[in-house]
Every structure is written in C-alpha cells, then in structure tokens.
Amino acid sequence: MESRLAFLAPPSPCEYLPDRDWQLHYDVVRRVTPAEYVDLLEQGWRRFGHVIFRPQCPSCQMCWSLRVAVGEFRPSRSQRRAWKVNQRDVTICIGSPAADIANIELFERYHEHQHLVRHWSRTAAHDLDRFTDNPFPTEEWRYYAADRLIAVGYVDALPRALSAIYFYYDPQERHRSLGTYNVLAVIDAARRRHVPHVYLGYYVEGCRSLEYKARFRPNEVLDAGGRWRRFRVD
C-alpha cells in the first residue's frame, strides 16, 4: 500500500447519531491492492475512492463493521419478494465506473430526495468522483428496467469477499425495494464467485439509514476486541 497522508480528524458532530460526536482515522492512499484492502476490511476499515477510513471515537463504539456469511445466507420472506419483483424486468450490467450524464442525473435526483425526505446534508455524498476514481479496479453495477437506468451500485471484487461500497436509485422506483435487491444481487454474485463474505459497511443501532444491514442473516460484526462474532442469525 502506498499512503499519501494519514491523520486522525478532530471530533465533529456524528452524521449517524446526531446527539454524539465522531472521530475518524483517515489514510489517503495513492495505491492499494485488492489483497491489501481485504485485509483492511477485516480490520474494520472502509473506503470511498482513495480515502480509507474507520471510526476512532473516544467515547462511542456504535459503528460495527458488518459482513454476511454467504454460504449460510437465507433470504427472509420480504427479501424473497423484492428479489422476485425485480428479477422479472431488471437487468444488471457490470462494467467500469463512469461519470456520464445518466449517472450524474440519477445521483443528483437520489440525493435531493434523501435531503428532502431524510434530511441528509446536500453534501452527504459530495460527488461521483468518490466512486469513479479508485486505487484499484472497481465494479459498477447498473440496473435497468425497460432500457431505463434506475439504480447504480459500486462493488469491490476482492480475493475473499465482495464489498458493497455505495448504491443510489431513482426515487420514483422506491416501491421496488432496490436497496434490498442490490444487496441480494451482490450476495448471489459472491456465491457464484465462491467468496465467503459480503461486506456491507457499518451497522449503527439507532441510525435508520444503516440498521437495514442487519436484516441480511446470518451476519457477523467486528467487536471492540478485533474479533468477528455472530450478530443476527435468524
């Protein structure tokens, strides 16, 4: 791994739990291999673009890295329903990340909706550069219905895992449960590629935007001692 800058940011208001402060350890990298990054994932790190980070909050340990055990995963009834609804007419095209007009317009519509409905900051995800400029090759998953782009996801294909980085969708299609379908599609791909885990980022109890991750079971979380342990099983 070739690091350009590593630092511990000062405490600031938490974007997950507004009544708390958070503090993040950052490492801005020029280059990292997929094998090196999966080792970092197993230690609780995540990344957006060339910025690798993990929480290092002095008074809170609510951010838990969560991964799904692919070989044991069994979808719930609602997850099976979301899979069936979208399998009928949604096509997934996997390629290299690009910031074209269709992506940018969809990205902006999604974030405007999240700002109005869930009160996200207008700069919550900044811009597409965080997902299209990467230190190693990353997959872009485009979801189409009747040749219309309705969602985009970014996935790291790693030696021992798939890591779901980010996902956005057309707010007019939210009845499809596309976020659920995306995770199910990544888990299905991991099974076909014979990798044991899908990493979903941080689970934070009390944060509606992140609590959904625990519904994909069985799953494991990284505890304060650096050990992966079973979390939600049935």
Distance from N terminus to C terminus (CA atoms, Å) equals 38 Å
Biggest beta sheet summary: 8 strands, mixed
Estimate the helix proportion, in percent: 25-40%
CATH architecture: 3-Layer(aba) Sandwich
Description of the structure:
This protein has 234 residues and is α+β, with helices and mostly antiparallel strands. It has a single domain, classed as Aminopeptidase (3-Layer(aba) Sandwich). The protein contains 6 helices and 14 strands. The strands form 3 sheets. An 8-stranded mixed beta sheet has the order 8-9-10-11-12-7-13-14, sandwiched between helices. α2 packs across α5.
Which descriptors would you attach to this protein?
single chain, 234 residues, alpha+beta, Aminopeptidase, eight-stranded mixed sheet, four-stranded antiparallel sheet, 6 helices
In brief:
This protein has 234 residues and is α+β, with helices and mostly antiparallel strands.
Sequence-ordered SSE layout with sheet pairings:
Layout: E1 2-8, E2 12-13, E3 21-22, E4 24-31, H1 34-41, E5 46-48, E6 51-55, E7 63-69, H2 77-87, E8 90-95, H3 101-118, H4 129-132, E9 139-145, E10 148-158, E11 161-169, H5 178-193, E12 197-204, H6 208-211, E13 219-222, E14 228-230
Parallel strand pairs: 11-12
Antiparallel strand pairs: 1-4, 2-3, 4-6, 5-6, 7-12, 7-13, 8-9, 9-10, 10-11, 13-14
